[in-house]
Amino acid sequence: MPLIDKSTCPVKSGSIYPGKLADEMTGRSSLRLGDAGGLTQFGANLVMLEPGALSSLRHYHMEQDEFVMVTQGTCTLVDDNGEHEMQVGDCAAFPAGDENGHHFINKTQAPAAFLVVGTRTETETAFYSDINMMVKMGPDGAAFTRKDGSALSTAELGEDS
Amino acid sequence: MPLIDKSTCPVKSGSIYPGKLADEMTGRSSLRLGDAGGLTQFGANLVMLEPGALSSLRHYHMEQDEFVMVTQGTCTLVDDNGEHEMQVGDCAAFPAGDENGHHFINKTQAPAAFLVVGTRTETETAFYSDINMMVKMGPDGAAFTRKDGSALSTAELGEDS
């Protein structure tokens, strides 16, 4: 059945970020709409941001194109050029390899949401713009390291040593 | 610049369908949002339907996943199971190779629109559900034939012979 029933689509929350970095994702959840509809070539997720929530740590992808359309409230896009308020229907695109990192913040007092589409690839590398971290994704999972590949310290992860 | 300015995004209208079949696309236009944002791995288009307009002839894709979210008005999804009214925010997914053909009709008296995302592949074959036609897309363009590969007759194309 092509129609996607959002009411039965599992809500995903939490984060795969290591250490205390995961705490920064409080108030963010998503519906995996494309997965629910049987799609495999790209992800299509509805990301919901409570007031104050972030979509992710600011980052850019090396292999995967990404497209966003705001569907509820106001989302603030943050990139290398500053902050850009986006209303319902506003769109943004992030071509693979473009080093202008991005994320979205709900700076309002009301819920906000956006649809995000990203290509699925067997491997992926993403770099985080504001901290010394990258992630390599592959068939075995995700490896978070410093940008030179070395291990993140407990201090960098916000943990007590 | 990641933000897409819809006001400067070229409006695409018309159709590549052969013969009089193109006439059935009257009242349909689209904004190539993904192209405007520099994306190459998938298309992300805002399809606008005037009252009575069709999104396409009813079809299914063999190689490309497709995802739709209604963004304005009411769109009627037609597939093998009948008609399904979709409101703003409603979503549908069409996995590659699923032979349940689909299209959208604006059966209302007001404008309607949806966002459609489709994978970009080097080649593609699509079959039309309600007529004896297929299209093969490739680097050289699009070839419309009967489903057995033979030529479409002038009668099938709605032309005077």
Short descriptors:
mainly beta; homodimer; Jelly Rolls; 1 helix; 6-stranded antiparallel sheet; 161 residues; globular
Summarize the structure.
Chain A has 161 residues and is mainly β.
| Quaternary structure type | homodimer
Task: Give the mean pLDDT of chain A.
Answer: 96
**String of helices and strands of chain A:** EEEHEEEEEEEEEEE
Tell me the greatest interface: A-B, 39 and 39 residues
Please tally the β strands of chain A and state the result. 14
CATH architecture of chain A: Sandwich
Query: Strand count, sense and closure of the main sheet of chain A?
Result: 6 strands, antiparallel
Under CATH at level 1, the class of chain A stands as Mainly Beta
The radius of gyration of chain A is 16 Å
- Strand % of chain A is 35-45%
The largest beta-sheet of chain A arranges its strands as 2-3-4-11-6-9
Secondary structural class of chain A = mainly beta
CATH superfamily of chain A: Jelly Rolls
Q: How many structural domains in the coordinates of chain A?
A: 1
How widely separated are the two ends of chain A?
51 Å
What overall form of chain A do the CA principal axes indicate? globular
Number of helices of chain A: 1
Stretches of chain A where pLDDT falls below 50 for ≥5 residues? none
Q: State the helical fraction of chain A.
A: under 10%
Q: Could you name the CATH topology of chain A?
A: Jelly Rolls
